[in-house]
Design brief:
- It is a single chain.
- By secondary structure, the protein is mostly helical.
- Helices cover 68% and strands 11% of the residues.
- It has helices at 2-12, 19-26, 30-39, 62-86, 88-108, and strands at residues 17-18, 44-48, 56-60.
- A three-stranded antiparallel sheet has the order 1-3-2.
- Helix 2 (19-26) packs across helix 3 and helix 4 packs antiparallel against helix 5 (88-108).
Amino acid sequence: AQFRLLMVLRFIHPDGVSMSRAADALDIRPPSLTEIVRSAPDLFLRSADDADRRQVILRASPEGRRRLDGALPEMAAHAVSLRNALGADAWDTFICGADSLFDVIQKGSS
């Protein structure tokens, strides 16, 4: 769950996002998101929204970005292995499906 949240914060909402919108992007309940954030205080930064002090804005911390960036090369290597195992046609189908899912998630969090 921490990895998914870091991916959302790094690539979909790099400037930060409200806790409620982050929960929506992950399709989890806000209390579950709060537990994820509290369980790894070194990975996430919380601050009050300048426009609405009642809202909490969530960002990846420098440590969270560092860890995510360090994991991405290994993820890429796994993707290459998966592509080789699936073959080109099945890989293309998989990627098209993932792109469609990403579009739905991104529209839902906008």
